[in-house]
Design brief:
The structure is a single chain. The protein is of the alpha+beta class and 198 residues long. It has a single domain, classed as Methylpurine-DNA glycosylase (MPG) (3-methyladenine DNA Glycosylase, Chain A), CATH 3.10.300. The protein is built from four helices and nine strands. Strands 1, 2, 3, 4, 5, 6, 7, 8 and 9 form a nine-stranded antiparallel β-sheet that branches. The two termini are 29 Å apart. The structure holds a DNA duplex (12 and 12 nucleotides).
Length: 198
DNA sequence: GCAGTGATCATA
DNA sequence: ATGATCACTGCC
């Protein structure tokens, strides 16, 4: 029997690396829409969740950014090189997952606020079992938590920009449109070209 | 609408 | 040592 028309073979995806993250946080936040957050479970199995909501924290000049008050034990990872995780505990209960962006010494990062069917940054980390142990570590297969490219750039008309959530203390910075959202339902169509995993 | 929750950091 | 703060969530 001749070959069946083959389903596109799942592209062997390489994790997004430092060069992707070594750009302004708002650019990275925008471009992460449609990317995959991949986590290796305790059983060794990989789970993929498509990123649909992010927020950019631009650096020391951004009053909503933890780095704006200088380096502390908590936010040290933000000052490190791009492509590492910055994870911290919020309200004593919720782990917040960020990927560090930009040059070493610039405290910038992107908060991952929504992936797959998980809405809200605290829910994302809870669902994926992410905690402090990832803080400061490179986003890589070795660590067991990384990001991979999606099926293509999400069209601008599908990207909604709003002010960031929960940063009312930041004055004018609270109003900057640095939150990026795309409807996950639209994403699944786009990403089927790049092959999702159930 | 607001209580829960506890690490973190500035102040002392 | 103490107290304010907090990039949130869940239940009232």
């Amino acid at each position: 029997m001749p070959d069946m028309p083959r389903q596109a073979h799942p592209r062997r995806l390489h994790p997004l690396a430092a060069d992707f993250f070594d750009r302004p946080a708002d650019t990275v936040a925008r471009d992460l829409l449609g990317a995959w957050l991949v986590v290796r479970g305790a059983d060794g199995r990989l789970r993929r969740h498509v990123v649909f909501e992010t927020e950019a924290y631009l650096g020391g000049h951004d009053l909503a950014c933890h780095g704006s008050k200088g380096m502390t034990a908590r936010n040290a990872a933000m000052f490190g090189p791009a492509g590492r995780w910055y994870v911290y505990l919020c309200y004593g209960m919720h782990w917040m997952l960020n990927i560090v962006t930009g040059a070493e010494g610039l405290p910038a990062a992107v908060l991952i606020r929504g992936v797959g069917e998980h809405v809200g940054p605290g829910r994302v980390t809870k669902a994926l079992g992410i905690n402090r142990s990832f803080d400061g570590r490179p986003a890589s297969r070795r660590v067991g938590l990384w990001l991979e490219p999606g099926g293509g750039r999400v069209p601008p008309r599908l990207v909604e920009r709003t002010p960031r959530i929960g940063v009312g203390y930041a004055g004018a910075w609270a109003e900057k449109p640095l939150r990026f959202v795309v409807d996950p339902a639209r994403l699944s169509t786009i990403n089927n070209k790049g092959r999702p995993q159930p």
